[in-house]
């Protein structure tokens, strides 16, 4: 459950280009967007500027031919989205003077988006298509593995599938890292943070941070990215996990350092957090499979009501240590680890160093399994 709203996926960016004469200057301060939606079922196309709030720039009805066209002033780098309904919209990154041509098939909206006339806008969907392709491959590996659960040779089969899963994941991450390294000024980087988390890739983002901030100092999303990167450095992978002590549900104080010598997963969660509760079956499976192999989960709850916290521990079958100061988002340990949304995980090795952050589900299971098997 997000504490703050992530706006990165509501965007179209524009850069000011100043011409030599008044007429040319006016032309260069505008951008045009035109296109067609095949198999159109939408009635309206709306262009929004996205800053701290969304501002409607223009809206026009769509005919049966699905054609649309907009011209907008572009005075500075900014965020826009072209929206057709609540679930279908196009993000763009645009320099003033560019002429975008967009083609979409309403029957397969996201996968069919094609953008010409803006390389950086096109990069958003090149990267997105790569992400979706890799995700489909990883899902296929998982589905095949689940079919083998009853196989007497499951342990050896599982290792092979896990190795393939990790190979696909690594390939995806390397493609996205390479994009950031080759395009440190690209605002398309903003659209990668959900799939390539800052926490786990701080070195890559650090290299782009100063370039982006220098190039777009007034962009609110770049400012937000800069703050996330600065916070990420405090508990970056490879650093010693900050120690803390909190009481469990019986009032007994438990310290993180008391688990030194084991792999520890700090799991930030709360009874009121729907996504956290949905993730708990995965946590139960993870703990039961590896608790006898030098692994422990330390739950840190951001609850504010003891009864609800304890009730959730019981109902979810959480048999691992759980602690809380019951201070909700004012949790000192949450602040110590820069927790902005839950569920949130921090994986620590036997020496107390952070080795992974914000992994969940199958990604988390595969990571722990690779360490302990």
Describe this structure in words.
There is one protein chain. This protein has 373 residues and is of the alpha/beta class. The chain has 3 domains: 12-116, Sandwich (Immunoglobulin-like); 125-233, no CATH class; 245-372, Glutaredoxin. The chain has 10 helices and 16 strands. A 5-stranded mixed beta sheet has the order 1-7-6-3-4, covered by helices on one side. It has a 5-stranded mixed beta sheet with strand order 14-13-12-15-16, covered by helices on one side. Helix 3 (119-146) packs antiparallel against helix 4 and helix 7 (274-290) packs parallel to helix 10 (361-372). The radius of gyration is 24 Å and the shape is globular. The model is unreliable at 1-27 (pLDDT under 50).
Number of helices: 10
The CATH topology of the largest domain, please? Glutaredoxin
User: For this structure, what is the CATH homologous superfamily of the largest domain?
Assistant: Glutaredoxin
Domain unit count: 3
CATH architecture identity of the largest domain: 3-Layer(aba) Sandwich
Strand order of the largest sheet: 1-7-6-3-4
The residue ranges in which pLDDT falls below 50 over 5 or more consecutive positions are: 1-27
Shape, per Cα inertia axes: globular
Question: Helix-strand pattern, N to C?
Answer: EHEEEEEEEHEHHHHEEEHEHEHEEH
- Helix share of residues? 25-40%
The assigned structural class equals: alpha/beta
CATH class of the largest domain: Alpha Beta
In short:
The chain has ten helices and 16 strands. It has helices at residues 22-28, 109-112, 119-146, 154-182, 202-215, 220-234, 274-290, 306-315, 332-336, 361-372, and strands at residues 12-15, 30-38, 44-50, 54-61, 67-73, 79-85, 88-95, 99-105, 114-116, 245-247, 253-255, 263-269, 295-301, 322-323, 344-348, 354-357.
